[in-house]
């Protein structure tokens, strides 16, 4: 009897641990936590940890506590696959990633092959920021869902705004030399050419991703070109250092960007002194005017001490919960089916839908400018005293482009 009691005493904690592990829903966060993209990756990690805490405080997802598992990929596609396998080996069935479309393409392919080879052990890839259009076109996968607007959707909206700005005469394109940056340049050329054929493209530059430390030679070229406007998809240190060099050189042009609001971007914009001459296209922003979103922003900043760079991450996690509840399961196969054509009210207001044809989330998007704040705009960025101001809102119906996806379904 004494031996039996001892055995129970030893086994009981082990059983309790196993049950606890089974009750945990792990999400592998695969993004840069070191190297040139670390500041952006760390911000994303804090965002997802905040969202996990928020859901856990309300019972998690179907009673499962959410755990964010951070995995450093150094913005490298091959390293991302190593981290994805590590996550799967640790029992992760959901991964999320955003920084780098080359990484996104590698992960999408990896997850698709993994699920073909391992039926019953499927993994879903939730993409919150990798926006190369190919991911929901020729490279589309049933196992990949994207919550950010693709770069061509964003460029469609951005060029619709630019075409009505008569002062734009000469545009310079500067982008990172990988799939996303290449899509920004090609979409800008095509769409500006169709909508404003009178606009001259006076420069078209690609540079290495997260490797340039001094952008002054590039700024000198922009200055010499006579450009009045620059279009760039640069993010992270590549945007901050680009604008810092512009400030040092006294370059005074308008900037049309995707990611000026990321880490270091607002500080660099303030240094240029370009009051409301830097524009950004996003799915939401701090001073959007939507009370629910602005209340959320206030609570987020108070706890995380960061701006909410990724309203789409809020939409992603909330839709994950909604899909699991619709399926009454956290099985990735059932969650994937429930996500298709799922309609959802987004954080900043308005309806979005996860398009079944290609797993691209369609939602309202905003163009905002950065500069001095009005009395109805409470949020500044990076303690600059400047913040984002609404320029234009594009409703969901106008914020979509066709897809060429021919999805293979399980």
Describe the fold and architecture.
The protein is of the alpha/beta class and 410 residues long. The protein is 41% helix and 20% strand. It is built from twelve helices and 15 strands. The protein has helices at residues 2-22, 38-56, 77-89, 101-117, 151-162, 179-195, 216-225, 237-249, 265-272, 291-304, 311-327, 332-339, and strands at 24-31, 65-72, 94-97, 124-127, 144-146, 170-176, 200-207, 229-232, 254-257, 278-282, 343-345, 351-354, 361-362, 365-372, 386-394. The strands form three sheets. The chain has a seven-stranded mixed β-sheet with strand order 7-6-8-9-10-14-15, sandwiched between helices. Strands 2-1-3-4-5 form a five-stranded parallel β-sheet, sandwiched between helices. Strand 6 (170-176), helix 6 and strand 7 (200-207) form a beta-alpha-beta unit. Helix 2 (38-56) crosses helix 11 (311-327), helix 5 packs parallel to helix 6 and helix 8 runs parallel beside helix 9 (265-272). The longest helix has 21 residues, at 2-22. The chain is globular, with a radius of gyration of 22 Å. 48% of the residues are buried. Keywords: Amino-acid transport, Signal, Transport. Residues 1-21 form the signal peptide. This is Branched-chain amino acid ABC transporter substrate-binding protein.
